[in-house]
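re: ur question from yesterday

yeah so i grabbed the chain u mentioned. its 217 aa long if i counted rite. heres the sequnce exactly as i have it in my notes:
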Amino acid sequence: MKRTMIDFDKLREEQTRLSKSVIIADRFRKVETIAGIDQSYMGNDIISCIVVCNAKTLEVIETQSATVPSMIPYKPGFLAYREMPAMIEAFGKLENSPDIILVDGHGITHPRKMGIATHVGLVLGRPTIGIAQSLITGNIENGKIFIDNELRGFEVRTKEHARVLYVSPGHMVSLGASLKIVQDCLRHPHKLPEPLHLAHKAARRELKERREVKAVN
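ran it thru and got these structure tokens back, copy pasting raw so excuse formatting
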């Protein structure tokens, strides 16, 4: 499938405009379910898997997935435009809408406060938190991430000798709550918070299954 020609300058302007609608405050009354969402790639296809867990036990309640062709190339700072269509389709299949969604990627730790976790939170109208494994921009001071002299997120080390995670609010979640929710979801020996770990496994499992089917055919 031919990819659409993309004007990244216009997308940059759109991100700046959308960032004015981002809510960095808790807009949820209770957290009974938490989801993790992650993607795998198979050629030009993006496989998005979302796993909904019980917030207390972290037991799996539901898993859904969707596969959507990638329409734009990868460009740092614009990941949402590439992966979000598959994420939205996977979310749309859920019978159990989660109270919080943990997203593999940045929230407001983004030059325009519009990482993929923030963007998908705005589109879905759901509270989201970004968990990234590398920084796009910013400075770290005592475990806190500052961008333009503003606190945007936190550096979190979840296991010894593992790379740190960078946690930030996406949308409708405060800075403090984003850190606490992620910390409450950590389970030894996994590096990622459990709902995101499970989504990562589900995405890789589906990728493996699709490759095996393709090899047989």
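noticed a couple things. Strands lie at 33-42, 45-54, 60-69, 100-104, 128-132, 139-141, 144-147, 150-156, 165-171. also The helical segments are 8-18, 79-92, 116-124, 175-184, 194-216.
anyway ttyl
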